[in-house]
Amino acid sequence: MLHTKRLHLMSVLVLALSCSAFAQPGGGRSYVSDSFVLTLDGVKCGFLKSTAGGAISAEVVAEPGSGPFVPKHLGKPRYGEFTLNCGFSLDKSFYEWIAQSWQVTAKPKAGSVVALDRTLTPTSEQRFDKAIITSTTIPAMDGSSKEPAYLTVTIAPGVIQNGPGSGSREEYSAVGKSQQQKAWLPCNFKLEIDGIDCTRVGRIEPFTVGQSVGTDMKALETAQVSRRINFPNLKLTVSEVGAQSFIDWHKASVVEGKGVERNGRLTLFGPTQQGVLLQIKFYNLGIFSLEPSKAEASADQVKRVEVELYVERMELLFGGGAAAQ
Questions:
Q1: Who is most buried in 33, 167, 272, 314, counting CB within 10 A?
Q2: Can you tell me whether residue 293 is helix, strand or coil?
Q3: Read out DSSP for 296-324?
Q4: Cβ(179)–Cβ(256) under 8 Å?
Q5: Do 138 and 106 contact (CB within 8 A), yes or no?
Q6: What are phi and psi of 216, to 5 degrees?
Q7: Strands 72-79 and 56-62
Q8: pLDDT 10s digits, 270-319
Q9: Cα gap 111→270, rounded to integer Å
Q10: What per-residue confidence (pLDDT) applies to 83?
């Protein structure tokens, strides 16, 4: 019994010594960042919901040789993409950058992601340059959802530098006070399509607008590189009771082969349906699929149909610009 207690005490002592080995000199300790701020071209755009990526790596190159061991060396540095989740309370320059990327007119930007602790003191910073937006994901619209949703934006930088956080706690506190939170609920949306009754559209699946860019960052910086933007299809869920205009459109376009195209718009409103946060214009919408949603026999549920549309072009308008439309 005494031997067992001694072993237990020795285990506790070893664990304590192991933990103390990770303590920072002078009694310091590591903190997990509690918030992140995005800056673009010197402007503190505001707080992000989350951030990921931004890794710096290098390719391992195997050299040719005749010996039994393969010589290796490192290639050029690689800079990973950043994935940013955000609401609608950042500086308008950020959303204008997204809109420009959809028009293939966006210029590369410099900026950083600053990590802050709980007191809003900067702890670290990932600085990037020659960055371009490669994708923007619009979250799902759902008439029954009451949980906030966020945009997901991916940017590809030409170069990344890691370092200590810049700026002061007072500066970031001021950013927090001036950043009016505009939480968006997925139920606060309105879809309009010319000549189509959209009042019974209950859900729009998330969609991603992406563009491919070349790897020549010098050419990218001077806009001398070819870019190609891809606008995705839209998938809607519509109550069967109000789907007749979609059914007629599908019959004319697909069954009769007339290929009727229409324009439309998707508007996102604030928490109380007051104030336009964002609007997306759709050009040359075409219907190519319509089918009943899965239904269980004898189940008490609303019958729905799933509609799929292609889109040739989209245009994003933010805040006041969207409201003016």
A1: 314
A2: coil
A3: -TT-----EEEEEEEEEEEEEEETHHHHH
A4: no
A5: no
A6: -80, 95
A7: antiparallel
A8: 877 678 999 999 999 999 999 998 765 555 567 899 999 999 999 999 97
A9: 28
A10: 97
Q: Report the Cα 9 to chain-centroid distance in Å.
A: 51
The partner residues of 281 in beta bridges, in order of sequence, read 265, 315
Residue 186 CA to residue 203 CA, distance in Å, equals: 9
For residues 255-268, b (16+ Cβ closer than 10 Å) or e, as one string? eeeeebbbebbbbb
Tokens of 60: 């391992």
Helices (H), the chain: 2-20, 92-102, 169-178, 217-221, 244-250, 320-324
3-state percent breakdown (helix, strand, coil) of the chain, nearest 5: 20, 45, 35
Contacts of 49 (CB under 8 A, 6+ apart): 85, 86, 87, 150
The residues spanned by each domain of the chain are 31-61+72-324
Give me the numbers of helices (H) and strands (E) for the chain, helices first please. 6, 19
H or E segment to which residue 118 belongs: none
Whose structure tokens read 């050029």?
Answer: 76
Quickly tell me which residue has 């997204």 as its tokens: 98
Q: How many CB atoms lie within 10 A of CB 55?
A: 13
Contacting residues for 60 by C-beta, under 8 A, at least 6 apart? 72, 73, 74, 75
| 204-253 residue pLDDT tens | 999 999 987 655 555 454 444 456 888 999 999 999 999 999 999 999 99
Of the candidates 204, 200, 203, which has an alpha carbon nearest to the alpha carbon of residue 242? 200
114 touches 37 (CB < 8 A): yes
What is the spatial distance between Cα 258 and Cα 2, in angstroms, rounded to a whole number? 90
* C-alpha separations of 46 from 135, 155, 186 in Å: 20, 17, 22
